[in-house]
Amino acid sequence: MEKINTTLLSNFILMGITDQPWLQKVLFAFILFFYLLDLCGNLTIISLVTRDPVLQSPMYFLLANLSFVDMIFSSVTVPKMMVGFLVENIITVNSCITQMYFFHTLGCTEGILLAIMGYDRYVAICYPLRYITIMGRSTCIQLVLAAWLTGLTTSLVNAIMTSQLPFCNKQRIKHFYCDVKPVIKLACKDIQVNEVTMAIVSGFISLGTFSLTVLSYVYIITHVLKIRSSKGGSKIFSTCSSHLTIVILFYGTAMCTYLGPASDTSLEKDRIAAILFTVITPTLNPLIYTLRNKEVRNSIRKLLKTQSNFCSSLETF
């Protein structure tokens, strides 16, 4: 029988997106720009919601929490990815599992938050008179805590199972961060159980929350079709379009990544999809809500006007 090298690895090497030096520099600048835009945009949303009394509603409370999750979601992967553009990106096995755990925790939490936001729009449109009663402050806090708790617990499954795998020979992860599929691909034992578990957990969360979001919009569309006023219907669709755009971006890339087997071809596609939902989507979320939402735009104008008046008073002083 062939003897297998059982020397266990203590480090991995993240191969990143490309090995072309010129392209690494371009990607470094590109991703740095989007990451800074992500931080500024989401911090702005959080600041506006906490400061402006007009934005003290359940919808904006949930939006602020989504911005907070997006900001941390990017920060779990992007800084380490940018290091890989400059030097060989070495990461310990324990750090790799930790990154994987928090990445999936935040991704799961975001998916549940999007489902809650869909339910929030359903209640606001279909039961406007009972909206504040149903989506009260305490209810919103409980829903957000439930989203975090679900993310923290379900992500433990893949993290614990991956940590139990022996990694003997292969060291290079074909990705720019530690994710389940490329990591378990390096194990020196059968990973079929891990792949099935990953598909079940990811499918339960992504398909479950996506189905709840779709169900909310089915009820919303049914309600809108009963409205005789075209102006009222278009206003409702305009209100929901920002959330719906984010839902399509998030779930589209997530499902393509996690509901398939860990083949070499799929891993190449996963890296492209991962750039979308770790860098691009968190950056677009605050921009989409800002451009499509009149109340948020007015709040930004008030903030800029206040800062301008403050600067003018300092100059006069």
From TrEMBL:
Keyword tRNA processing on entry: no
Residue ranges of the TM segments: 26-48, 60-81, 101-119, 140-161, 199-220, 241-260, 272-291
Signal peptide span: none
Primary localization class, coarse: membrane
Membrane topology: Multi-pass membrane protein
GO cellular component: plasma membrane
Keyword rRNA-binding among record annotations: no
Molecular function terms from GO: G protein-coupled receptor activity; olfactory receptor activity
Any Pfam family matching the protein: 7tm_4
Domain G-protein coupled receptors family 1 profile, first and last residues per copy: 41-289
Keywords: Cell membrane, G-protein coupled receptor, Membrane, Olfaction, Receptor, Sensory transduction, Transducer, Transmembrane, Transmembrane helix
Subcellular location: Cell membrane
Domain of life: Eukaryota
UniProt xrefs under InterPro entries: GPCR_Rhodpsn, GPCR_Rhodpsn_7TM, Olfact_rcpt, Olfactory_GPCR
Homology family: Belongs to the G-protein coupled receptor 1 family.
Name of the protein in its database record: Olfactory receptor
